[in-house]
Every structure is written in structure tokens, then in C-alpha cells.
TrEMBL record:
InterPro entries: KR_dom, NAD(P)-bd_dom_sf, Sc_DH/Rdtase_CS, SDR_fam. Coiled coil: none annotated. Keywords: Oxidoreductase. It comes from Amycolatopsis dongchuanensis. Pfam families: adh_short_C2. The keyword Calcium does not apply. This is SDR family oxidoreductase. The keyword Phosphoprotein does not apply. Belongs to the short-chain dehydrogenases/reductases (SDR) family. Residues 11-202 form the Ketoreductase domain.
Length: 262
């Protein structure tokens, strides 16, 4: 059955930023498909709630509360997975993000911080995970990029540059780690997570965003989780080095920050 190719039974996954939003949805989806999951973010109560949802699927969760803005902490999750479950097969580099800021207020330090949080953490965990994946016979890495890494909008210089770097890092890492480890990314559009609450909580702004999106809605975390499962599972076995756009069909930003001409 074709649906069997979406199973990850007996596999072990690490999902960063998995206390809520896309990360939580991905962790639960992988568990529903048969994986045990290491969940990690800064907030332990959120992780505990996700772990309970994983347990309800019949799979096991290992909770690691830590500050994943530190690449060393991200890398440590590979060891945590092997110690908890004896192997590592799937990595979802979901942690990341950067607040919008006008270009002339974007300092070099702010840009470097965005790069570290969105790219260096993913690199640290990927390289730490690779030996364990090779020992297990192979694996899959899914990086969460953004549509702002391929389209332009005012105020997103740091965020968009970092996510564009993550997308190309995906292509380069896939080439280096082939054929046993696949590396792909998802360019995510506007998704209803806590990070977007500030704008989606305003009915007028939400309506404008939905109207500017070809599919006329804001995405759900499960929309992204389904794509993650495809790329991480045998269903995506012939896919590597690719960036899958899960953004409702956007070809331009659907959120205008209203920054004026200089």
C-alpha cells in the first residue's frame, strides 16, 4: 500500500522548537507515523504537553528543555537521542525566526544573530546527527526555511537573508551527505502559530493576508507537518537537496509592514 511509505515505524526523530506550532505538529505527526521523538525548546511545560500527545499515539517522547539559540545545545540533541533511544534517523531543524526590522536599523550584530539562530543551529545539529544516522544505515534531515528567503519585502533583511542561506545550505549539505542521508527544506508561508498571533489576532490584518494568499487562508501547522512527514519518510526517498514551498501559493509577501520610503 502506498500509505505504508509514509510510515516511519521504529525510527527516532529529533524536532527542534517542538513545544508549540510547527515543531509540535511535526513531532506528533512523526509519532503518529511510528517514530519515537526527542522534543526540545526552552519551555518545559509546552514540551511536557507535546510529550503527552506523543504518548497517546503509543510512541515514546524524550523531553530536552534547552536554549536552542546556542548551536552547541542544538548539537547535543543528537547525543540525547542516541542515549534515550539507541539510534537517530530523522532531524527536523525547525527552531529559528527573527523579528522584522527596518534595513537601516538592522545592525551587523542583529544579522549575525539571525544567521546563528536560523542556520548555525541547523548545521550544528545536522553534523552532530550524521554519524548516528550513518550507523543506522541512513537518515533524513528537514530544514524549516521560509518564503521570505525567496521573495522580497521591506523589514525582512535579516530574516529573509538567514532563511535564504538555510535553503542553499540544504542544497549543499544534501550533496555532501548523499547518498545515505537526504537533506531537504520547506519554505513556509504564513502559518497560524503563536509567532503570528500579533497580526492574525487582528481581523482586518488577517483578512488582508488571506486575500493576498492564492489559497485564501493562513496555513495550519499540520499543513507543514504533513510535508515534513513526506520528506522524512520513505515516501520522499528519491528527494534530496530540494526546497518544498508550503505557502498557499504566495509569489509576493502577504504582510505589508507599512515601512515608508526613505
Amino acid at each position: 500500500m502506498i500509505l505504508d511509505r509514509f510510515r516511519v515505524s521504529g525510527k527516532v526523530a529529533v524536532v527542534t522548537g517542538s513545544g508549540r506550532g510547527i515543531g509540535a505538529a511535526a513531532a506528533v505527526a512523526l509519532a503518529e507515523a511510528g517514530a519515537d521523538v526527542v522534543v526540545s525548546s526552552r519551555t518545559e511545560p509546552d514540551l511536557t504537553a507535546v510529550a503527552e500527545r506523543i504518548a497517546a499515539t503509543g510512541r515514546k517522547a524524550h523531553v530536552v528543555p534547552t536554549d536552542l539559540s546556542d548551536p552547541a545545545a542544538a548539537a547535543g540533541l543528537a547525543t540525547a537521542a542516541v542515549e534515550a533511544f539507541g539510534r537517530l534517523d530523522i532531524v527536523v531543524n525547525n527552531v529559528g525566526g527573527t523579528y522584522p526590522r527596518p534595513l537601516l536599523e538592522t545592525t551587523a550584530e542583529f544579522l549575525e544573530e539571525a544567521f546563528r539562530f536560523n542556520v548555525a543551529t541547523a548545521h550544528a545539529l545536522t553534523t552532530a546527527a550524521a554519524p548516528a544516522m550513518l550507523e543506522a544505515g541512513g537518515g533524513a534531515v528537514v530544514n524549516i526555511s521560509s518564503n521570505m528567503g525567496r521573495i522580497a519585502g521591506r523589514g525582512f533583511a535579516a530574516y529573509g537573508t538567514a532563511k535564504a542561506a538555510l535553503a542553499h545550505y540544504t542544497r549543499l549539505a544534501a550533496f555532501d551527505l548523499a547518498p545515505k542521508i537526504r537533506v531537504n527544506a520547506i519554505a513556509v508561508g504564513s502559518v497560524a502559530t503563536s509567532a503570528l498571533d500579533l497580526v492574525t489576532g487582528n481581523p482586518e490584518i488577517r483578512e488582508r493576508m488571506e486575500s493576498a494568499t492564492p489559497l485564501r487562508r493562513i496555513g495550519d501547522p499540520e499543513d507543514v507537518a504533513a510535508a515534513i512527514l513526506f520528506l522524512a519518510s520513505p515516501a520522499g526517498a528519491y528527494v534530496t537537496g530540494k526546497v518544498l514551498e508550503v505557502d498557499g501559493g504566495l509569489q509576493a509577501p502577504n504582510l505589508d509592514l507599512g515601512l515608508p520610503d526613505l
